[in-house]
Amino acid sequence: MHPHAALIVVDVQPDFMPGGALACHEGDAIVPGLDRLLRQRLFKQVVVTQDWHPRGHISFASTHAGKSAFETIPLYGHPQTLWPDHCVQDTPGAALHPGIDWSLADLILRKGSHPAVDSYSAFQENHGPDGERPRTGLAGWLRERGVSEVYAVGLARDVCVLWTVQDALEAGFTAHVIWDLTRPVTPHSDAATRATLQRLGIGILDSARLT
Q1: Alpha carbons 184 and 189: distance in angstroms, whole number
Q2: Model confidence pTM above 0.85
């Protein structure tokens, strides 16, 4: 048991699985291991994030005339990747993956619900029209429960998982990525992701090392 640690399970949803609207490379491969990890009850708290976009969300390429998925545009003074429509509220692709027992979660945090602001991290939304990154309240929620350390798993390793652990670190938590229980949008990003984590002092480990 990790008495002062939380597990953050990021966006394990059908739209991020092979065949989904925004498929991550081998995204479905992490599901059995994640289910086993949750059943081990190794963490003081388990937080689950769920991407939950309204139709016409600002991050969808379809919202911007003449733009294609994976193009980057300036938005509120920052680069914004345009994505295929994904995790639209109340659609099957936005549901939590049925292969995991989600009753073991202590908190399910929906993100990306503001139509004009994208949201990758569990701790903060992306920059909004006022230039600020609104907080989700997760940092305070964890501190109130005696959490000082977070371990992140889920999808996508190079986007929402990465942003989550970076923001966790900035919020004062010790942060780790359980590498074998994450997958990227594309494996071509892995070297850069590892380099960023190492530069920031964010731990990288495999689930076999957890006890």
Answers
A1: 7
A2: yes
